[in-house]
Amino acid sequence: EGGKTPPNQHQLAIEMFFIILGIGVAVCDGKEIPIQAGDSLLVPPTGIHAIRNTGPGRLYALCIMIPNENFAELIRSGIPVPLDEEDLRVLRGARPTALLGTQGDPVGIPLVFAQRQQTAD
C-alpha cells in the first residue's frame, strides 16, 4: 500500500526488523535489498536506513532497538491508529517460528509495526 519509514539513524542503537507479512525494500547506507515475510534485517549504529512497502498489501514487521534510544517514546508520540480486522488477524497469527517460515504455537502478541497509511473517513 506504499507506506514507508523516513530515512533515519541511531547513534548507539542496533535496530532489528523481522518481516512478518508483506514485501518491500530495505535501504541502509544507500544499499537496497528486497525484503519479504521470513526475512530479518540488522541495522548497525549510525546506519542511515529506511523500509518501503512495495507490495499490494500491508507490510508488517517486528522491530527491536537495543538500547532504546527513545524509540519507545517516538512510537508513543505518534498518531494512534485503531487496529482493523487485518491487523488483528496478523497479530493473532504471529508466531516466532513463522519468522523462519515454519508454523509454531502462538506465544502472545508481539509489538508489530504495520506499514500502512491512515485513510480519512
What does this protein structure show overall?
There is one protein chain. The chain has 121 residues and is mainly β. The chain has one domain (14-100, 110-115): Jelly Rolls (Sandwich), CATH 2.60.120. The protein contains 2 helices and 7 strands; from the N terminus they run E-E-E-E-E-E-H-H-E. The strands form 2 sheets. It has a 4-stranded antiparallel β-sheet, with no helix packed on it. It starts with 13 loop residues before the first strand and ends in a 6-residue tail after the last strand. Mean pLDDT is 79; it is low at 96-121.
User: In DSSP terms, counting alpha (H) and pi (I) runs of 4 or more, how many helices?
Assistant: 2
Work out the radius of gyration. Answer: 14 Å
- Count of extended strands: 7
Instruction: Specify the CATH architecture.
Output: Sandwich
Oligomer: single chain
Domain count: 1
Strand ordering within the main sheet: 4-1-6-7
Into which percent range does the helicity of residues fall? 10-25%
Termini separation comes to: 17 Å
Order of helices and strands: EEEEEEHHE
Shape: globular
Q: What's the main sheet like? A: 4 strands, antiparallel
What class would the helix/strand composition place it in?
Answer: mainly beta
Relative strand content: 25-35%
Mean pLDDT: 79
Q: Which stretches of 5+ consecutive residues score pLDDT under 50? A: 96-121
In the CATH scheme, the class would be Mainly Beta
Tell me the CATH topology: Jelly Rolls
